[in-house]
Amino acid sequence: MEPFDLTLIWAGIVAFGVIMYVLMDGFDLGVGILFPLAPDEESRDLMMNSVAPVWDGNETWLVLGGTGLLAAFPMVYTIMLPALYIGVFLMLAGLIFRGIAFEFRFKANRSRWLWNLAFAGGSTLAAFAQGMVVGKYIEGINTADGVFVGGPLDFITPFTLLTGVGLVAGYALLGSTWTLMKTEGVTRQWAQRMARPLLLMVLAVFGLISFWTPIVDQAVYERWFSTLHVIWVLPALALFCAWKIWQGIGHNREGTPFVFTMGLFVFTYLGLLVSKWPYVVPPEITLYDAASAWESQLFLLLGLLFVIPIVLTYTAWTYWVFRGKVRAGDGYH
Amino acid sequence: MDLDPVLLSRIQFAFVVSFHAIFPVFTIGLASFIAFLETCAYRTGNPLYTRLSKFWIKVFAVVFGMGVVSGIVMSFQFGTNWSNFAQATANFLGPVLSYEVVTAFFLEAAFLGILLFGRGRVPGGIYLLAAFMVAIGTFISSFWILAANSWMHTPAGTVMENGMHQVTAWGEAIFNPSFWYRFAHMGLASFLTGAFVVASLSAWFLLKGREVEANRRALSLCLWLLLVIAPAQLWVGDLHGLNTLEHQPTKVAAMEGNWETSSNVPLLLFAWPDQQAQTNHWELGIPGLASLILKHDTEGVVPGISAVPKDEQPPVGIVFWSFRVMVGLGMLMIAFAVAGLLLRPGGRYWRSRWFLKGLVPMGVAPFIAVLAGWFVTEMGRAPWLVYGQMTHAEGVTPSLTGGMALFSLIGYIVVYALVFTAGLYYLSRVFQAGLEEASGDGEHAEAEHAKRPFSAAHVPLEQQGGHA
Questions:
Q1: Where are the transmembrane segments (chain A) (predicted)?
Q2: Residue A33 lies in a domain
């Protein structure tokens, strides 16, 4: 009765949406995480100006992700959100604070320090909470009859704390390589100094997660060590990206570290997806279990096919308009 | 006392959605006002309209920004607190709510940027088109939200299969039996809100003698508009009430405070409903008027609350009084609209200080009326979440404990109090800066391509002082 597999198409759309969000909001959250470490107030102005034109467009992907998940994979939405109830609240609170800080910092004089704090704290909190979401996804969630069973603090485990730190470090790396690409002078030099230690930290955490996961999860172990050898190309590519980042930082290549940091994220993300496929709420619920009705998926897909290309074009255009270095004085106010 | 996760979740949802709703209800009306001003400016070339439009676009930008921030929270509420409801209704509500997001996304991507930053950079016709598209876009957004909400009141076009509603007819589900009434009622409410805020602020400026020519024109426009829409809202509200009587008689019974099904029911002006005793205290009413309004006959039979068992009754006191607050404010709005007409001769509507002074606080009235109206319709549906099919208790997240719900409720109250105090304070600064400030700029640097709502307003957050 169903002419083609919409669930698979939707899995692709959601996976694409998630990585778009992670990469795009990742660097502007990263800028926020690094904010307190910046050398001076002028650098902070520059950093904020570099993300100001694009950050809210980046965050709309999250809202679309929330409702899109409800539409296409409702069970993921209705299991993950209750399981991460406290975490989701903290993430939203963090995002609200940083969003408002964005708007008010430029208009504030005496209260500027407060908005700096809100921006940095909100960004870090949101990133950490998102990292814990990833960790909980990898660990798996206890369910019975498609409903989360467990306590409110179950999502806080050594592993999710580790992934929380990992994503904060990862976003900070994105933020530092972005700043390196978008600024000059003192700010750029500072970003350059930050990038390598951050890269090492990210590699350490990602490495730890990669060893930990197959040990605790038999299914992941089998996927990597017996069934699918071709997927080893993903960690290889991720390591290649890491090497290019390291090199790019040293050789003063402006865009290279940022582009390859995105690459590092993409290949790690793909590695994660193939580890868990076809489970969307490990360890039991597959994407077909979680899917909504075929008609509902189709109804929304028709609209998205029309809108997504426009949004992508607009996004690309915005980044094109704001290409190049951000300089003091052409702040947007 | 045990903490009840259902009650706390309901309070939390009421809190975040009320906070969110006040922004769009204003921007929908304001966007149409701006489109109207731009049309006048385009056709007459009168710079007065451009001055007005520039100022109100700034206000629009700030309010729209706050609406977006508070909207992020909304898209997660169904999952965190109402997961059983979300799962059961996902096949319909998922796509419908997503379409709302997609509409807003598209709108922001394409036209909001032009409206906020494109003046003088794009041809006049394109700018006018952008103003219209933003106005239409806000309506499309509310279209989807009200389709979802109306369906929860009057579900149609779906059947229950394997614990989920399956959509059998999209048209019937979206244009469900109460949809058009709700849409019209809410659309008019948005216009009323926009018109009263503009009228209120124009009156305030006129009292201070600022930009008299432009503000007088704005006030005049609003008063003409109100003369039509304030009475129209009464009529549409009545139709909506009759529709509710057909589909949710218990809600109407609670609105009227009528416990026993009977004929010749009075319209109660005052009463203290007592749910425990299933009766009212201190009743004061006009005999037969409720029957006349609802059945167009003083002997008409009006359903009573007691027709359903106690555990299927809504909280009568809140519904009863919210309804009176809404209708009372609506009557006050009509009175102001009529007074505006009577004061037309000799331009007394903008010279009479008592009239202007009365108009200033009326800027708040529509917001209270809108929230009261939502309290009536949402509380009046209780205990049902999807009317007749799923109760609040059935829809709540099974793993949710009272402690968690209390934690997040307090958290949201704290976050919103901080954030929106800052937002409203900033808005008051934009108001104080007024039209004079708004018409001064326009030549800001290229970096204004920023296209973010707040960057359209150039007013500093604090009083003068410190470095810029």
A1: 6-39, 83-101, 113-135, 155-174, 195-212, 224-246, 258-279, 299-322
A2: yes
Contacts of B76 in chain A (CB under 8 A): 66, 81, 88, 92
Q: Say how far apart CA B408 and CA A88 lie, in whole Å.
A: 10
CA–CA dist B208, B32 (Å, integer): 27
Chain A interface, best mutation among B19, B158, B451, B463, by max A CB count within 10 A: B451
* Chain A nearest CA to B192, separation (Å): 29
Q: Do A111 and B461 touch (CB under 8 A)?
A: yes
Report pLDDT for B447.
Answer: 40
Which ipTM was obtained for this model? 0.89
Token digits of residue A187: 């700010």
Interface A–B counts its CB contacts (< 8 A) at 226
Query: For chain B, what is the mean pLDDT?
Result: 90
Left, alpha or beta for A146 (phi > 0: left; psi -120 to 50: alpha)? left
A71/B97 touch (CB, cutoff 8 Å), yes or no: yes
Q: Where are the domains of chain B?
A: 19-247+318-456
Domain that holds residue A289: 6-321
For A62, residues 6+ apart whose C-beta sits below 8 A from its C-beta are A21, A25, A95, B72
- As a whole number of angstroms, the distance between CA A33 and CA B453 comes to 24
Task: Tell me, yes or no, whether A327 lies in a domain.
Answer: no
Chain A residues close to B69, C-beta within 8 Å: 96, 99-100
Q: Please check the confidence at residue B267 and state whether its pLDDT lies above 60.
A: yes
Task: Enter the DSSP assignment of A238.
Answer: H
Taking an 8 Å cut-off on Cβ atoms, the answer to whether B455 and A52 are in contact is: yes
Is residue B294 within 8 Å of residue B323, measured between CB atoms? no
Per-residue model confidence as pLDDT tens digits over B96-114: 999 998 887 777 667 888 8
Residue A1 domain-assigned (yes or no):
no
Return d(Cα B160, Cα B163) in angstroms, integer. 6
CATH number for the domain including A17?
1.20.1630
Residue B364, number of CB atoms within 10 A of its CB? 13
How confident is the prediction for chain A on average, in pLDDT? 90
How close does chain A come to B433, measured CA to CA in Å?
14
Q: Tell me, yes or no, whether A312 lies in a domain.
A: yes
